[in-house]
Amino acid sequence: MKILGFASGLIGVSILKLIKMYRISQNPKLLKKYEIEQKEERFIAIAEKSGRFTFILTIVIEFVAIFMLTLIHQDMMATIISTVAGIQTLAYLITFYYLQQKMLTFKSCGLANLLEVPYVF
Fold this sequence. Notes:
By secondary structure, this protein is an all-alpha fold. It folds into 2 domains: 1-39; 40-121. 85% of the residues lie in helices and 0% in strands. The chain contains 4 helices and no strands. The protein has helices at residues 2-26, 28-39, 41-71, 75-109.
């Protein structure tokens, strides 16, 4: 039943996002404003920093939970959370390394502007 509630929440948020994008696409003034915001470096930097902060906060909370679960002898839950934290960290490191190599390759070829993809919130 908990999964159904979570899935319903995701579907609801997705529907609201689709409605928002439809309204933006139908109004030229909102579309222009949206396009400008997507390419503005300040918003891109804020999005990157907030994503990095959220990742670090999540990892710290997971490690605190692992420590607490170990103290109360909930080894199975601690193992599950440890695995999730490890997978998250591994995915972050692989993505970071891949993007770093991609950026270095494009900069050496003079194609760095190809990486400027607008963020979609």
